[in-house]
Amino acid sequence: LAPTDKTHSFVWGLFAIPLMAVIFKLYGLYDRDVKRISHSTVDDLPWLFHATVIGGLLLWLYSRYTPLGRFDFFEVLVFGLGVILFVMTLRWIVRSIATALIGYDRALLVGGGPMASAFIRKLAHHPEYGIKVIGALIPEHDDDADRNGALPVLGTLTQIEAVAARHDVSR
Description:
This protein is mainly alpha-helical and about 170 residues long. It is about 55% helix and about 10% strand. The protein contains 6 helices and 3 strands; from the N terminus they run ααααβαββα. It has helices at about 5-25, 30-35, 45-65, 75-100, 115-125, 160-165, and strands at about 105-110, 130-140, 155. Helix 1 (about 5-25) packs across helix 3 (about 45-65) and helix 3 (about 45-65) runs antiparallel to helix 4. The longest helix has 30 residues, at about 75-100. The radius of gyration is 24 Å and the shape is elongated.
């Protein structure tokens, strides 16, 4: 590569990084982990792919009208593939480190019955979700709640804030 090619790529890189960060934020890629149980990096791939296509097209269009130089299709394709591989790898590494350092989210189960038991079993069989259910809250005056001894009953629905604060619950 000639020095002008390196300078050209560097200048476009300085412009592309904040642009892609804004597009990823608009696509909700930074907020998805708090909104869902599963934290799989593969789940982000469709959104990441679409956001990268949009970002690549915006960069390509912008390059047509600036004196910085134009991108051809191959450069946009390499850029897009590089962004997807880099971001997927980085997200996987960060999630792995965060799970190792922070540990599991502490959760309360609200209610009971057969669906609650199935939910508890599912969480127990999927440690990659990073959630540990520490207890249950039941409706007041519900003597028929199926507690089946799987979880300790920590209180009633009206006590949710106090129980969550006392047991350091995040979900």
